[in-house]
Each structure stands twice: as structure tokens, then as C-alpha cells.
Amino acid sequence: xxxxxxxxxxxxxxxxxxxxxxxxxxxxxxxxxxxxxxxxxxxxxxxxxxxxxxxxxxxxxxxxxxxxxxxxxxxxxxxxxxxxxxxxxxxxxxxxxxxxxxxxxxxxxxxxxxxxxxxxxxxxxxxxxxxxxxxxxxxxxxxxxxxxxxxxxxxxxxxxxxxxxxxxxxxxxxxxxxxxxxxxxxxxxxxxxxxxxxxxxxxxxxxxxxxxxxxxxxxxxxxxxxxxxxxxxxxxxxxxxxxxxxxxxxxxxxxxxxxxxxxxxxxxxxxxxxxxxxxxxxxxxxxxxxxxxxxxxxxxxxxxxxxxxxxxxxxxxxxxxxxxxxxxxxxxxxxxxxxxxxxxxxxxxxxxxxxxxxxxxxxxxxxxxxxxxxxxxxxxxxxxxxxxxxxxxxxxxxxxxxxxxxxxxxxxxxxxxxxxxxxxxxxxxxxxxxxxxxxxxxxxxxxxxxxxxxxxxxxxxxxxxxxxxxxxxxxxxxxxxxxxxxxxxxxxxxxxxxxxxxxxxxxxxxxxxxxxxxxxxxxxxxxxxxxxxxxxxxxxxxxxxxxxxxxxxxxxxxxxxxxxxxxxxxxxxxxxxxxxxxxxxxxxxxxxxxxxxxxxxxxxxxxxxxxxxxxxxxxxxxxxxxxxxxxxxxxxxxxxxxxxxxxxxxxxxxxxxxxxxxxxxxxxxxxxxxxxxxxxxxxxxxxxxxxxxxxxxxxxxxxxxxxxxxxxxxxxxxxxxxxxxxxxxxxxxxxxxxxxxxxxxxxxxxxxxxxxxxxxxxxxxxxxxxxxxxxxxxxxxxxxxxxxxxxxxxxxxxxxxxxxxxxxxxxxxxxxxxxxxxxxxxxxxxxxxxxxxxxxxxxxxxxxxxxxxxxxxxxxxxxxxxxxxxxxxxxxxxxxxxxxxxxxxxxxxxxxxxxxxxxxxxxxxxxxxxxxxxxxxxxxxxxxxxxxxxxxxxxxxxxxxxxxxxxxxxxxxxxxxxxxxxxxxxxxxxxxxxxxxxxxxxxxxxxxxxxxxxxxxxxxxxxxxxxxxxxxxxxxxxxxxxxxxxxxxxxxxxxxxxxxxxxxxxxxxxxxxxxxxxxxxxxxxxxxxxxxxxxxxxxxxxxxxxxxxxxxxxxxxxxxxxxxxxxxxxxxxxxxxxxxxxxxxxxxxxxxxxxxxxxxxxxxxxxxxxxxxxxxxxxxxxxxxxxxxxxxxxxxxxxxxxxxxxxxxxxxxxxxxxxxxxxxxxxxxxxxxxxxxxxxxxxxxxxxxxxxxxxxxxxxxxxxxxxxxxxxxxxxxxxxxxxxxxxxxxxxxxxxxxxxxxxxxxxxxxxxxxxxxxxxxxxxxxxxxxxxxxxxxxxxxxxxxxxxxxxxxxxxxxxxxxxxxxxxxxxxxxxxxxx
Length: 1363
Known about the structure:
Blueprint: E1 3-13, E2 21-24, E3 30-34, E4 38-45, E5 48-56, E6 67-73, E7 78-83, E8 87-92, E9 98-103, E10 108-113, E11 119-124, E12 128-133, E13 138-143, E14 194-197, E15 203-209, E16 216-222, E17 227-230, E18 237-243, E19 250-255, E20 260-265, E21 271-276, E22 284-291, E23 298-304, E24 316-324, E25 327-336, E26 340-345, E27 352-357, E28 360-369, E29 371-372, E30 383-388, E31 391-396, E32 409-412, E33 417-422, E34 427-429, E35 438-440, E36 459-463, E37 467-474, E38 486-489, E39 503-514, E40 529-535, E41 538-544, E42 549-557, E43 565-574, E44 578-583, E45 589-594, E46 599-603, E47 608-611, E48 613-614, E49 617-618, E50 627-633, E51 638-644, E52 650-652, E53 655-658, E54 661-666, E55 670-675, E56 679-684, H1 687-695, E57 705-708, E58 714-718, E59 725-728, E60 734-737, H2 740-752, H3 756-766, H4 772-775, H5 778-783, H6 785-792, H7 795-803, H8 828-831, H9 835-851, H10 856-865, H11 871-883, H12 893-903, H13 906-915, H14 919-928, H15 933-944, H16 948-958, H17 962-968, H18 976-986, H19 989-995, H20 1001-1016, ...
Parallel strand pairs: 39-43
Antiparallel strand pairs: 1-28, 2-3, 3-4, 4-5, 6-7, 7-8, 8-9, 10-11, 11-12, 12-13, 14-15, 15-16, 16-17, 18-19, 19-20, 20-21, 22-23, 23-24, 24-25, 26-27, 27-28, 29-30, 30-31, 31-32, 32-38, 33-36, 34-35, 36-37, 37-39, 40-41, 41-42, 42-43, 44-45, 45-46, 46-47, 48-49, 50-51, 51-52, 52-53, 54-55, ...
């Protein structure tokens, strides 16, 4: 649904002389004119044409009657000229040397170079095809008059022969094969052969006149000159031929008695479609057809036949055709009063046409664009206009989505349509809008004082040479003067069906006139290009001459009323040629794009042109853009230019926004973009987002929404203030999608306006989560919840809303892209998990107040949906309805119960009914369920026989509501044993202790059972407490003895009233137990306080290294003899032990540190050798972790039972639990030569440091007592050796645990963000902060072993007097 828009037209007057052949140098852009007399070269410059060289054939003794073909050979830097006399001539461009490189005696009719200029194809006058190389050596020759199909002749296996078919009433005569006779060529055919190459240069086709039938035929050859295919016989086939560069079709033409057609052939010669040309077969002579380089446009070169009506107005006609959905559209038609002599498409720009007439050289440049209405309001119908010759195919996508080649209706004009312009939208900030957003003034229909520019659905069509036709919306039956134009409804009704859309009708048609106050210039209005309707009463166009370019401003005066005029008010020249004109949505300015990429701003009020500046910077696109638009940003008062190049680069101002954009569309508040990755992106038109996107960081902010689309899809249009986006596939078919961001944006507007019914309709169609209705603005929703119920007014939809409620805030999760700038509400109730309950309660109250009878079902759902489900309340509500005899409610109890059964599980509903203790309610639910009466009736009858409290107990036990069951028997002792069994079986000890009074026998029984349970769990202290509460003191004493709680043992002993002898026996047993546990301090306390044995108490304190307490006891009980017999010998013995231990620790620590350095050096060297591929020895896979990086070097391992090869040094991909335990043990092994020796050494050193730190307090106390006993030398020796050990350990910490080792909570990063280079750097331990080999090995240890143990010793542990 795209049109060709002429954006650039340049003309230069050139000297052509006699008729001849033209060729263009693709590199220097020089033009060569070759005729029978000379070779003339000229180049187009800024100031016109410059003559470069002129070579006369006579000067080189060459005589030729006519020139057949001429090409610039880039590789040889020469011009190759083929003459009809049979000569092949080369002209050197530098030296101007002329040489005849070959000659054909029979003469040459046609010649053509291959696309790669490696082969030259000649067709001689005696109908032979000659294939020559680039050095003009003939490699193949074939006679066209041979009766041969070619190498790939079709194989007929005899199926479906005409002779074997049944012909019914036609009889046997119909089975006879009648040989068809093809008609001879038309007299207008020049009977000359034509050659055309396929784009890849592998095949070429020759069109010639067969000698036997005197009819045209196509023959397809390969590069070797071998015939491959011959076309089928076609009546009226003409001389033109052009092979589509993409290779799918060969275009030609045929002239029949009643029509003139362009027909297509496949490479196998079979006809493959056609389309008629829009004139009679006797009006035009078809000169040539030519495909552009991207195979999207077919050019048809026509010459009116002398004497016809068309011949008086034009000597040559050029038509441009495109195809979509198998329909051919006539997009452009150029008429020339001079005869066209040469034309060719540009090799680089597929939309640039070079055309040479008798005296002028023309360059035409088109762009492919979609002519569509650009309104922003709901009244804009999203019109799309498609040009097809004199017809304009119209489709309003807001009202109907009709795929091409059909349309809603078509408008026929009196001449070829050249340009289509839709009226601009009138945008301003609307203060009445709830969000102060942009609004659009669209009148919808034309009024007396309402100019056409006020309605974005109105359009203006430039057709013919200088005619402008204005159209507005009206009914097809309205009586209007259509000025010769016709409107016919096609795909949207008509022909007896009701018309579903409003159509465009002509309201005015005018010729362009000059303002009397302006100087009339000699401008050809037919050469205007880049038409735009910039403002309400202003049209803009561009006019270009040989050396100048101007902007033409036309004023619309009184269009739609009398008198009315289209007047040229100003012609503003520019220094550089204009490529495109883009108006601003507010109609105040227009932006002019120049050939150099610069942008100029044209003020439509002052008519001044100046550079376009945004934020103080001049805007300039890095390259020329085919499509330019002005995007509104911020509040709509500023606009940013947006440009799309032919190489899919999308520019936002002077910065590149995307590098793979294929199309874009400016929606109300979003920018829609399709990419070469077949993705539709929706970007919000916010300056903050665009700045991040340009900087490359918007992908992480989660603002843009995207969705996959079909390959090659492009945006046609999008319905304003709607969710529909129309995409067109490469073949031409349409697809309408509803991008989620647009749907959410529309929902936000509807929710802001409290249009809940429309919002819910979109939510259901687009499958948006219903939670968004509340999450969009919780406070606003709760404040208008009654309006919500009244506006929706549909119990089923409200029921669906309640059922879908969730605690998740969807504005922060699923739909965060549309709420990026939102300040999220901080609701304490919702934060605590009360969103569902709050909405259900508020909605239930609103429904009850509006109409409780109507909304009964959603009311029931609100009870069930509560976080703590109130299904019992819902059931009671249903029972209440059932008991009411006057049928107050519209919904019956059975319907309500069915509803509950639908939203809740029947078994759960049965249990809830049973939990109400109401057997009538239980029976009502059971009857509606599929339960078997044989199962539930005996159970219910049995329950009815029990006493009330016991019945509730049994029901709660059945429902596993054990706490409620216990509460039912709290005041009764009749079923104590059953209650205890329940407590024990379900382990309800804590609940039972809270339910039964502390003074009751049941509480004591529970405590006893709880004590037994805790003893089995080995919670002895807690078991002792429970036994004490149950008055089971013997059991409590046993529990405390197992726990080693000596204080509680003494307390329970006193509670049991033990006598002195029994207490002494208990204490003796207790102190032995404490000494066995090395708890000498507590044992000393018992000896001193209970057994009164100070000697044993002092002995325990010495063994526990409590020297101060030992001296205290000795002096307290005046036993100074114990100082010499116990304390002093004990200190000496402790001194010898500590000295030996310090020496042992120092020796082992030094040995392990030295060994660790050697092992690490060896393993790192082995690791580097492996990376460099120099490791020939056997490698241990266990040396590397399960997450080691693949190095890519092959290795092999041989065993007695077989061999194994691989490409990585990773370990096994899985490990059993037994292997994992074995691996953990190996990691802590210090065996020399082991795979994990370095890790075992680190673990051992960690233990040594921990042991040394733990000795600090005991060494300090020992040094103190040694000085007290005047053993200064020993104290100094002990403190010095221990201090040296600590210093050594502190110094070695940095070597054992390098600084590059990651913290314990840091893990290796893997995933898509880790590149191959990063992986290699991590292995090799390279710079830039990469992890070293030692750090990789340390990751194998447990996190707490990856760093030295924490230092918890006192900083002043050493004695100052001993330093």
C-alpha cells in the first residue's frame, strides 16, 4: 500500500547531435553519446554540463552506418562500441585511442554485456548468437533458427494426453490434437532481436523473430552459450524484453486486437501472468521495459503513435509499475514533449532514473512512502490512499480493514495521479483533558467556515499537469459536483449492500494561479515535487531547474466556497537542492532536508528560512534520509526531526536511534518501529527514554515493548488513540496487530476517565490482566468503586474481575514498561498482603448498595476470594436465599450453589459446609455434588447421635481442624483419653498447653506426654521443664542429668527433699560427670559449696588453668601447702606443655607454608603449559572444577582397560553423592603429590591459625602466674616464643590467601554476558582485574576457608614487664 513520491527532479540542457546510443560511467558519472559520426562525452556539474572529449570516427578511418550498443567497461577503462556493420570498437578514455578489436562479416543486430562485464553477447544478422569474453575471444556460437527446445526440455511420461481423455458430448473429434498456428509479428515490430541478462549473470534471454513462423520467440541460454529453454508460442509477442534482476520473471509485451499487455515468462519459457496497459492497442508503441535494481519497479517506455490524440500532447511517455498481492499498480507517469532517446536505472540507487531526451538530461528520484492521514484524534479514520493510475484506492482502517488489491472505495480522476496530500492535524494543548495532554480539533465534516485543512481526513490530489482536487468526507448518495471524478464503493459495500464507510467526495477543483502581487515566473507546475499540505491554508512544493532549487508556497483561499483559488504566494530559493519537506504537526513550521543532510526550518508565518536548531545545536542528519518526520516530544511544544535512510538507519536528530529500522510510524504518544530482525518495537515519545536509547542504555530500563512479526513486515498505519497497527507483508497481504504497550496506554486513558466498561472490553479482547484496573490507581479506584459497578453493570464481568485478583502489583512487573515514571503507591495494608481482601470488601459493599439481587453471584465470589476464605458465609447466604419464600432474589439458591461449585472444589465446599455444624447446609451441598449417598449419609447419621460438643470434636477431627477439636472438649473430661491420643498422634502439645487450663489434670497429662516426646528428640532440658510441670520430679532429674544441667539437678534434688547422704551421693556423681566433660570450673564450685572439699576444688581449678581462683581457694581455707604441692607444679607442667605446643605449631606452620609455595608454583606452571598446548603428560581431570572453562586443547588418557579422548579439561559433568563426599575428603588431604594438596594445605594452615588464636588467653594467664612465682625467665621465654609464632602467622597470611581471591559471596559469572575473551582472561589470570590461577583454585574451598580466620585475641595480651 505504498506509493512512489517524486522527491527530486533535475534537468540539464545537453548537446546531443544526431541520434545515437548513450551510456553512463557509473564511477565518474560521465555521459557518453555515441552516434555514427563521433563519440561525445560530457559531465553534469553544479553549473551545468562540461564537455570532456569528442572523438570523430573519420579521424580513425572508421566508417559506420549505425551504432547498435555502447557500454563503459570499468575493468579496461574504455568504451566498447558495437556497430551494425559488424565492428566491435574500443575507445580508451585516458588516451582516446580507438581500436577495432573484432568484426563480424554478417553484421550485428544486437549486443549486450553481462552484469559482471566478463561476457559480450552478439546476435548477428544471420540469426546467430555469439558469446565473447572480455578480451573479445569467441567461446560459443548458436544458430537461433534451429528447431530445438534446449537442454532442459520437458519430459512427457504420457500422462494426461488429450487423445486418452474422455470428452463427453463433444465426441471423438475433440480428442484429435489440432496444431495451433501462432500469428505473425505486428507490423509495428522492428523485427530486431533483444538481449537481457539475469541479475546474477548466469542466464540470458534472446528475443527474436523465428524464420519458420514469422513470430517472436524467447530463448534462454547459460553463460557458456548453451540453449536451455525456449518459450511457448504467444500471439502478438513484441520485441521488448527485460529479465527481472532477482531472477524470477522475464518481462515482455504483446499486442492483441483489443488490448496491449505486459506479459511475464518464467525461465523455462512458460507464460506466468500479465497485466493490461491503460490504453488501446492502437495508441502506443512500446519502446522498452526495464526493471530497477531491486526488482520492485517495472518501467514501461511508450511512444504515442503518430496521428493519435495522445501524440499531439506528448512524444514519449514513461510509466512506473509496482506489484502487490498479484495486482499491478500504475504509480507514476511522465510525459515528455521531446522524444526520449535513452533511459536507464541507476546501479546504486534503485529509485534513481537517468533519462535523456533530444536536448535535455533528466534525473528523477523517487521514494517509497505510504500516503496516510496523520491525525492524532479519535475522529481521524486512519485513511490510506493507494495510487493506481487515474484511480485512488481509499481504505479507512478505523472503520474497515480491507486488504489490497481491494479497497473500501476508489476515486477516479481525469488524469494520472501525481501526488496525494492529506490535511494536517490541528494540535494544541487541551486544558480540559484530564492529563493536560494533546487534543485534536477535527470537525469531521466540511462546514461553510471550516477550511479543508481542519479535518485530517480531507485530502488534496495533484493530477494531470496543474490540477488540484480537494476532497472531503460525505455520503456516497450526497448530490455533489465531482468535477468529472467518480467514486465507486468496492470492498465496503455497494452493489445492493449497505455502505459501511463514508467516502470522499470532491468539493473543489482548481488550477494553480499566481498572486498578482508576485512576479510571475516561468515555472512548469507539472514539475513540482515533494508536495505537502503543511497548514490549514498552505501547500508546499519543491521546484528545481538546471542550477537552482526553490520552495513554492501556495495559499488556499476559500476552498469549498465561491470564489476560491490556489495561489502561489512566494517562491523561496535555496542554495542546495531540497530532498524532502516535512511539516510540523502544529502547522507553524516545515523542515527542509537538503542533499547534504542539513535541515532548514521554514517559518510559515514569516516565510523565513533558517537552520533548524534543537537545544542550541544545528541539526544535520549524518546521511540523506528518504523519510523525514517531526516527532512531538515533552508536552508537544517541541519537535525532534526523525529520519530513515535507505540503509535502514533511523536518526533521532543528529544521533542514530536504530541501525536496522525498516519502517516507522508516529502514534499518539509512541513511536512504532519495525526492524530487520522482524520485530515491532513500541517506544514512548519521551525525551528521557530517547536519550537513553540513543546512548545505548534503554534496553535495560524496560520501557520499550516489542513483539515478533512476520518476516519483511512494514508498518502501513496505526489507528490514532487505538491499539490497532496495520502491517503489510512483502507479498502485499495485511496483518492487523494490537501491540501490548498501545493497549496498556489506551487502558490508562480510559481508566483515568473512569470508563471502566470500555477498559474491561479492551482487557478481555487483548488478554490483559484485570488486576490493572485496580493497580493503575488504587486510591482512585476505591474512591470510584460504586461508579465502577454501575458503569460495568455486568455481574459476569465483575465476577471475572474478582476471580482474577492477585496480590502482585502488575504496574511494577508485567506492565512496568508503561509505568516507568510512576511513583508507586505505598499502602501499608496492601504491603501486608491485603489487596485482595480490601478490594473484595469494598466491591462487595458497593454491589450490595447498588443492587444486591443482581450482583449476588459476584458477591458470593468476593466471599470465596478472600485471603482467609469466607466460604461458610457464602454458603449461609445461599441457605438464606433458599429459606426465603417470597423469592426476593433474582438468582435462585440452586444457581448460587452451582456458581460456588464452579469456582470452588466440591470436596472443599462440602468440608466448609460440614464445618458450620449445620446438617441442612451439608445436605444441600452434598445433593448438588457427585458424592455417593452411601458414603456420607451413614457418617452424618452417626454424627447426629453424639452429644453436641463431642459431635463438633468429631467433625473438626474429620476436617483436620485439630485445634478447634481440642477447644470443643476443653471443659469436659469425658473423652480425655481420646483427646490425649489425638494430641500425641498429631503432636499438638503446644496448642494443647494453651487450650487446657494450667491447673487441670489434662494440662499435667499433656506436659507428661510432651516430656516423653522431648526426651525422644534429645531435648533434655526442655523435657525436664515439662516433667517438672507434670510433677514427675524423678523423670525431671533424669532429664537434667542427661542434659548436664548441674544447677537444675541440685534444684530438683532439693525439691525431692534429699537428705545429706543422698545429696552427697548426687553431688559426687555430678562432679565426676563434670570432670569427664572437662568442666573443671563448675566441678570446683560443687566441691567447694556442697562437698566442702577445698583440696579437690583447688585441684580442679589447676586443671582448668584458673590460677587466680586456685590461689583464692588456697588462701581462703589457709591451705598454703597446696600452693607448693598443687598450684606451682601445675604451672610448671603447663609451661612445658605450652612451650612444646608452640614449637610444634611453628614447625608445622613453616613446613606447610614452604610446601604450599612449591605446590602452587608447580600447578600454575602445569596450568599454563596446558593452555599453550605443551602439556604432553597425563592430566588429572580433578585438578579443575566442574565449572572450569573449556580451553579447546585436545587431551587423551590411557588406562589398562581402554582410552578416552576429549576436547576440554573439565571434570565429569555429574558426580554421585558418594563421589562428592570422596572429593570433599580429598580436598583436605595434605598428601604430597595429590591433586588437591594445595587446598589441603590451606585448610590445615587455617586450623593452625585458629588454634594459635585460641591459645592467647591461656598463655597470658600462664605468664602472669609464672611471674607471680618468680619464674621470670620461663615467663619471658613463653611470651617471646608465642609472640614470634603470632608474628610469623600474620606475615604469612598474605601469601596463603592472596588479595585477588574473591569474597565468599562472590561466585564466577556465567551466562550470555560473559564473552569468549572474558573466559580466556579468567583462565589465564590476565590484567584488568581478572581472576588469577590461585584465586580459581581457592574457589574450590568452602567459603570460610577462602580467607584467613578472624583475629579475636586481645591487642594487649602480652605483659608489659616481659617485653
